[in-house]
Design a protein that fits this description.
mainly alpha; about 75% helix; 14 helices; about 290 residues; about 0% strand
């Protein structure tokens, strides 16, 4: 069942890059609305079904939630901006290198990493490089976009690790509703500080914002947050690498951004790396019942 959910999550996040690149709105505004709308959907559910859990949050849980929210806000601010500067394929590939950041961060935290896991990650990252190719535009704007996407991947890694910690004691509904709300609040401040428009958009733009919220936030991020209770952050971050070919194909179909010729070879490498890591690590221990919605 967890791999079916993982497939749903991959399909959801694969739509994220193409949708946000096509939305005619400022980058920070897009990031704010996808989190704000998701929080608005989840808040009534959490208030009804998880009231006791939310009212009983302790200091450690609030700290982890804040780390996750700040990291998620920084991730979106950097990545959505990158999508406006470079190609969807390159931005998605670079941000999905979060798997390497996860391993590096966990290594500094004292978690041992086997050579087999490192080999699997290396194979998968080779697939990312094959799919994304080199940025042939060689423009300053594209280079800046690529660097922003790379930094966005670092914050995505911190967000994923924090989510794994939060899901040790919090249900998916409680965690996502609070995290998305805090993230939206931070992005709202950023929008106001940058004087970015938050409204006055066309109906097509609002439809795009609703679509990216439904597909990428609720059926993408939320599904992977749920899986963090049964999969390690390393495995989850590696599964998310499948977003790279998905986003490239969607960008080709709807934005006219043709994927690199090696997209299928790259996909094969990503799948091979995923198999190596999953076969080596296996799923994380089953969480206590209170953590499962």
């Amino acid at each position: 069942m967890q791999w079916v959910l993982a497939l749903v999550g991959v399909l959801g996040v694969s739509a994220s890059g193409p949708l946000m690149a096509a939305i005619a709105a400022p980058a920070l505004a897009i990031a704010f609305w996808r989190n704000g709308l998701a929080a608005a959907v989840l808040a009534p559910v959490a208030a009804t079904t998880r009231r006791g859990e939310l009212s009983g949050l302790d200091r450690r849980e609030w700290w982890v939630l804040m780390v996750a929210a700040v990291s998620l806000a920084a991730h979106f601010a950097l990545w959505v901006t990158a999508l406006k500067l470079t190609s969807v394929a390159s931005a998605t590939a670079l941000v999905c290198l979060m798997g390497g950041w996860v391993v590096l961060i966990n290594r500094f935290r004292g978690e041992p990493v086997s050579r087999t896991v490192l080999a699997g990650l290396l194979v998968a990252f080779c697939g990312v490089l094959v799919i994304s190719g080199f940025d042939t535009t060689v423009s300053t704007e594209a280079v800046v976009g690529d660097l922003l996407a790379l930094a966005g991947g670092l914050f995505a890694a911190v967000y994923t690790i924090a989510g794994g910690e939060a899901r040790r004691t919090l249900s998916t509904t409680a965690y996502t509703s609070v995290c998305y709300a805090l993230c939206a609040a931070l992005l709202l401040v950023a929008c106001l500080a940058a004087r970015q428009d938050l409204g006055g958009f066309s109906g097509r733009t609002w439809l795009g914002l609703v679509a990216v919220t439904a597909c990428s936030q609720l059926l993408g991020h939320s599904v992977f947050n749920h899986l963090l209770a049964t999969m390690s952050p390393t495995v989850v971050s590696l599964v998310i690498l499948l977003e790279v070919p998905g986003a490239a194909l969607l960008a080709a179909a709807f934005l006219g951004q043709a994927p690199p010729p090696g997209v299928y070879a790259g996909l094969s490498l990503i799948l091979a790396g995923l198999v190596i890591v999953v076969a080596t690590r296996g799923p994380a221990p089953r969480p206590i019942e209170a953590r499962v919605d």
